[in-house]
Design a protein that fits this description.
This protein is an alpha/beta fold and 218 residues long. The chain has one domain (48-217): 3-Layer(aba) Sandwich (Rossmann fold), CATH 3.40.50.150. It contains seven helices and ten strands. The strands form two sheets. The chain has a seven-stranded mixed sheet, with helices on both faces. The chain has a three-stranded antiparallel sheet with strand order 1-2-3, with no helix packed on it. It is globular.
C-alpha cells in the first residue's frame, strides 16, 4: 500500500507542475509551465489537489475496473484516477479530449503501472461507448456535462459512481442549469446525488444497485 499522497507523487513525476495557494490560503491549485500554447508561463490547470485526493480515495474505496472521463485537459484529474486504479491493482481509464495538442500532451502525462490509459481525441458527442463503466467523471465544456451524463447514463453499471466537476448546490448559468431529464432520473429513483461545496464545486451521483436497500426504503 502506497502511503505517500497522490498529489506528491503527481508533482514528483512532472517537473513542469507545481502547487500554489489561492485566495487567502483557502485552497491550493496546480500551475504548469508547459500548457500547449502557453509554454513558459504559469497557467492554472485541473482539479484542485483536495478534489484530486478525494477522487483518488473514492476510487481506492469503490475499486472500479473501468473509468470514463470527459474533458481530459492536461490530465490532472486523470493522473489521480490512473494512480488510484494502479494502487488497486490495475484497470482501464478512457478519457476524452477534443483538442489534439492537449490530448497529445495528456498521453505523455497520464501513466500508471497496470493501467490501460486511452486518451481519445474527439468530442464527447462523437464518442460511441462499447463497454459498461463502473465510474464516470464529467469535466468537459460546462454546458455539456449534464447532457453528456444523461446520454451516457445507460453505460454506467448498477452501483456506479458519477462525478461532475465545477457544480455547486446551485443551478448556475455556466453549467446551463440542470436538465429536466436528470431531475426526472432522481425523482424516479434512477439516480441519487450529493453536492460538495469545494472551491470549484463537485457533485457526486450513484446509480442504484440492482438490489438496493436505500432505493427500496424511499
Amino acid at each position: 500500500m502506497n502511503l505517500i499522497s497522490a498529489t506528491k507523487r503527481i508533482i514528483w513525476d512532472d517537473e513542469k507542475l507545481s502547487l500554489t495557494t489561492g485566495d487567502e490560503g483557502r485552497f491550493n491549485f496546480f500551475i504548469t509551465t508547459d500548457y500547449p500554447g502557453r509554454e513558459g508561463t504559469e497557467y492554472g490547470v485541473g482539479v484542485h489537489p483536495e478534489e484530486g485526493e478525494f477522487l483518488y480515495s473514492l476510487i481506492r474505496i469503490i475499486r472500479p475496473k473501468l473509468v470514463l472521463e470527459t474533458g481530459t485537459n492536461v490530465g490532472i484529474s486523470g493522473r489521480y484516477i490512473a494512480l488510484a486504479l494502479a494502487d488497486n491493482g490495475g484497470g482501464r481509464f478512457d478519457t476524452i479530449e477534443h483538442d489534439g495538442e492537449i490530448a497529445k500532451q495528456a498521453r505523455l502525462k497520464i501513466k500508471a503501472p497496470g493501467v490501460t490509459v486511452n486518451v481519445l481525441n474527439m468530442s464527447t458527442g462523437e464518442f460511441v461507448p462499447t463497454e459498461q463503466y463502473d465510474m464516470m467523471f464529467f469535466d468537459s465544456n460546462p454546458k455539456d456535462r449534464f447532457v453528456d451524463m444523461d446520454t451516457l447514463f445507460d453505460r454506467l453499471n448498477p452501483g456506479g459512481i458519477i462525478g461532475v466537476h465545477d457544480q455547486k448546490n446551485v443551478e448556475n448559468e455556466i453549467m446551463g442549469g440542470i436538465p429536466s431529464s436528470i431531475k426526472e432520473r432522481i425523482h424516479v429513483g434512477e439516480l441519487r446525488g450529493m453536492a460538495f461545496m469545494t472551491d470549484h464545486g463537485l457533485c457526486l451521483f450513484q446509480k442504484p444497485f440492482e438490489q438496493d436497500w436505500i432505493k427500496d426504503a424511499t
